[in-house]
Design a protein that fits this description.
single chain; 8 strands; 25% strand
Length: 175
């Protein structure tokens, strides 16, 4: 069976933990930390620039996955399990617009799938979720220091609980 590769972008607070979380999910082929949907007059921002909260960029994880093994709907549900969708510009102890939550899609087909999951999730809350659903405007990889950070620094900071990583490893995604 030939792999059917797709790409989606998730912003869920600090990208170190979000990247490590998605690395655990069966069917995810690769991940990369970076910055998405920022000011278009600032191409290729540095971490230091994004950290100022003046660039409009969000810490984001690029997720490449094999659609034969995991669906976009499943990945989006996993994303919601790892964030607080009611928190604006804050996840865990991390605050600022760079830590906002969002899903950035590449096609109208992806948008339709994601909108369906958003509608399911919204039913769980009385107030509107604070999660962006937007087309990907721009994306730039973070420097090497930030790639696979928790694999290189297992005791490094992460706002996600360790139990969530175990759960992600054991989750069975639908196709």
């Amino acid at each position: 069976m030939q792999a059917i590769m797709e790409t989606i972008y998730f912003a869920g607070g600090c990208f170190w933990g979000m990247e490590h979380f998605f690395q655990q999910v069966q069917g995810v082929v690769s991940t990369e930390t970076g910055f998405a949907n920022g000011n278009e007059d600032l191409p290729a921002p540095t971490y230091e620039q994004v950290y100022t909260d003046t660039t409009g960029y969000a810490e984001t994880v690029k997720v490449e996955y094999d659609e034969q093994h995991v669906s976009l709907a499943f990945l989006t549900r996993m994303f919601f399990a790892a964030i607080d969708p009611l928190s604006l510009n804050k996840q865990g102890e991390d605050e600022g617009t760079r830590y906002r939550t969002g899903v950035y899609y590449l096609s109208e087909e992806q948008k339709a799938v994601i909108e369906s999951v958003f509608a399911e999730e919204q039913k769980k809350y009385a107030e509107p979720m604070k999660v962006e659903l937007l087309p990907l405007r721009n994306y730039y990889p973070a420097d090497e220091y930030h790639q696979d950070y928790l694999n290189k620094h297992p005791d490094g900071y992460c706002h996600l609980p360790l139990s969530l990583f175990r759960w992600a490893r054991e989750a069975k995604g639908e196709r």
